[in-house]
Amino acid sequence: MQPAAVLVAAPASGQGKTTVAAALARLHARSGARVRAFKCGPDFLDPQWLALASGAPAHALDLWITGEADCAQRLAEAAQHADLVVVEGVVGLHDGTPSAADLARRFGLPVLAVIDASAMAATFAAVAHGLRHWRPGLPWAGVLANRVGSDRHAGLLQQAVAEDGTWLGHLARDDGITLPSRHLGLAGAGELPDALARLDRAADALAATPLGQRRLADWPRWAPPAAPPADALPPLLAGRRIAVARDAAFAFVYQANLDTLRALGAELVFFSPLAGEALPPCDALWLPGGYPELHAARLAARGDLRAQVAQHVAHGRPLWAECGGMMALADTLVDGDGRAHAMWGLLPGTAVLGRRLAALGPHAWAVGGDTLRGHSFHWSRFDTPLAPWSRTTAMAGLRATDGEPLYRRGSLRAGWFHPWFASSPALAARLFSPDPST
Q1: Strands ordered across the beta sheet of 393-394
Q2: H-state helical runs in 16-138
Q3: What Å distances lie between residue 309 and 69, 108, 435, CA to CA?
Q4: Residue 398 neighbours by CB distance under 10 Å
Q5: Which terminus of the chain is more solvent-facing, meaning fewer CB atoms within 10 Å of its CB: N or C?
Q6: Could you give the CA distance from residue 73 to residue 263 in angstroms, rounded to a whole number?
Q7: What digits encode the pLDDT tens for the residues 58-82?
Q8: Can you spell out the DSSP letters for 325-354?
């Protein structure tokens, strides 16, 4: 039987689409339905909430970064094991090239528009109408009002959209279901002891709406894309053990990247710098992005780990440091309060957390005939005397046409760039191999 599916979108960021998408996934998963959730666009934090809600890993879908074929394969695979597929959009429904609306049209995903109605009445209907009709051919599920002030307010909103027949209910303003955020997005689900309780409360609220009361059997069936299984990857990393830092300071990891490394033959072993764990015996090391600036004092105190990482590089073993991972390797990290911390000192220079966004957008990195696609998203800058060893190329149309710098010192390679390993497994493998040409 074909599953139900929905793409949860909004007019802009901050409307509550993560809350609604996660609540919808949680509502049905806890009733025994098989739910698979995805995030449209590059994101490390929203998928954590979607995974917690659905009980299964949540992958990214992006027609440019991950590619149309990758999106089709992941959706087709999910459809074989799901009663409901939930895709959370990114920023506004029609924002970006490609946009969440492009993804919805390409794969026939009905759009549920979540609109923050806290400061509007009849205009709510105009916003919903514009989202639905601004571009032709958009599959539509309906509209849900968020942060509604009262039942009377909800009645006004429902009356305004009555002619379209797309009203799926409302959620009241409730701090108890609001997911907390900080400068790079939501707080990680694993950081909050009440994360599941928040999702349960949101699911309970959604259960009182027409959307939440609709049985999955009554949803329109969704026809997933016809996509062949992905080809088996060559064992380019067979016999190699890769250590991966994983904790609140190094939390920005795509599950698909881990899957790709394993499919290439690598053995992965995880360790937590914040928990005081030593660097495990390994052939290569990955320091992912995350929030080192929030844990700088604890990371700076890990002189033992600093020595272990330095020895790893001195022996010519590969180290890939990504965004926050690069910041941990700097001489100094200046946090949001202006405090300077002496870090691990493998890269000369100072990482400084800024007060506004420094870079955001899709990027690609080409080496020879291979190209890794990914994105850049950071508030910080890195003041260093090092000349860039290489650069990414920003997706056409972005202002940062010179891309992001990549640095190299011996077997250490680092940059702001967050690659999607499945876009070029061969180049991803070279990041963790002693290949002097990479």
Answers
A1: 393-394, 359-367, 370-378, 418-419
A2: 17-29, 46-54, 68-79, 100-107, 123-133
A3: 38, 48, 19
A4: 16
A5: N
A6: 16
A7: 999 999 999 999 999 999 999 999 9
A8: HHHHHEEEEE-TTS-EEE---SEEEEEEE-
Predicted confidence (pLDDT) at residue 436 exceeds the cutoff of 90: no
Distance from C-alpha of 128 to C-alpha of 134, rounded to nearest angstrom: 10
Structure tokens at 366: 């080409």
Please state, as a whole number, how many other Cβ atoms lie within 10 Å of the Cβ of residue 87: 29
**Token pair belonging to 330:** 């700097």
Helix axes 151-160, 123-133, angle to 10 degrees: 50
CB-CB neighbours of 227 under 10 Å: 17
- Per the CB < 8 A criterion, the answer to whether 310 and 344 are in contact is yes
Q: pLDDT tens digit string along 22-50?
A: 999 999 999 999 999 999 988 888 999 99
Torsion of CA 109, 112, 116, 117, to 10 degrees: 150
Q: How far apart are CA 75 and CA 71, in angstroms?
A: 6
**CA separation for the pair 133, 136 (Å, rounded):** 6
* DSSP classification of residue 218: G
Q: How many CA atoms lie within 13 A of 93 on its CB side?
A: 31
Residue 18: pLDDT band (50, 70, 90) is very high
**What would the two tokens of residue 101 be?**
């609306």
Question: What are 406's two structure tokens?
Answer: 């990549």
- Side by side, which strands form the sheet with 380-383? 340-342, 330-334, 347-353, 380-383
Work out the mean pLDDT of the chain and round it to a whole number: 91
Give the CA radius of gyration of the chain. 22
CA distance linking residue 255 with residue 317, whole number of Å? 24
In the residue annotation, 282 being an active-site residue is answered as no
pLDDT of residue 328: 95
The CA–CA distances, whole Å, from 211 to 24, 131, 350 equal 9, 19, 50
Q: Say which of 40, 71, 282, 323 is annotated catalytic.
A: 323
DSSP type of residue 190: G
Buried b (16+ CB within 10 A) or exposed e, 108-131: ebbbbbbbbbeebeeebbebbbeb
